[in-house]
Design brief:
α2 (30-40) packs across α4 (60-72). The protein has helices spanning 3-25, 30-40, 49-56, 60-72, 95-102, 104-120, 125-162, and strands at 47-48, 76-79, 88-91. Helix content is 72%, strand content 6%. A hairpin with an 8-residue loop joins β2 (76-79) and β3. The chain has seven helices and three strands, in the order ααβααββααα. A three-stranded antiparallel beta sheet has the order 1-3-2. By secondary structure, the protein is mainly alpha-helical. The radius of gyration is 21 Å and the shape is globular. It has two domains: 3-92, Arc Repressor Mutant, subunit A, CATH 1.10.10; 97-162. One of its GO terms (molecular function) is DNA-binding transcription factor activity.
Length: 163
């Protein structure tokens, strides 16, 4: 490995760790965030669990819990190939767009529940106001998220036509 390749590898690892830290700061579990960022940088065909552990410097148990979580939220998939003894993990293509769009019903349900909280505290103007504003925000997200994903898909298609 050349010094340039080694430097590029360190930059990539640092960037992946920074991205994982940002996700963790907004509530995403730390180890799944690290595994997901490692898989974004994975070569074609992904990584095995042992390769992930080695890359991240963590135990097999840590990787196992992280990949189980990421599979549950449908961000990665386990791929078995007849020519490989060990299963590999890879990011599911376009998964983020589906996750964002699929949250719209959740935002709507959350808005309804928050309105119920406000209604139960109708004598407290401040509580009612907070609940109404939060419910309005979640309804806005429910309405806009599918539109934003559609807009992203159009931009991505345009970019592909110009590449």
């Amino acid at each position: 490995m050349t010094a340039e390749q080694d430097d590029a590898g360190h930059v990539a690892v640092d960037a992946a760790e920074d991205a994982a830290a940002i996700l963790t700061a907004v509530g995403f579990p730390r180890m799944p965030a690290r595994v997901m960022m490692a898989l974004i940088a994975a070569p074609a065909g992904g990584y095995t669990a042992s390769e992930l552990g080695e890359r991240l410097g963590v135990s097999a148990a840590a990787v196992s819990g992280a990949v189980r979580y990421l599979q549950t939220v449908m961000v990665i998939r386990r791929v078995s190939r007849p020519d490989h003894r060990l299963a590999r993990y890879e990011i599911i293509p376009d998964t983020w767009y589906g996750l964002m769009t699929n949250n719209a019903p959740t935002y709507e349900r959350l808005a309804t529940s928050i309105e119920s909280i406000g209604a139960a505290h109708s004598a407290d103007h401040a509580a009612t106001e907070r609940a109404e504003e939060m419910a309005e925000f979640f309804r806005f997200m429910a309405r806009r998220m599918p539109e934003l994903v559609d807009e992203w898909e159009m931009l991505r298609a345009e970019r592909r036509l110009t590449d």
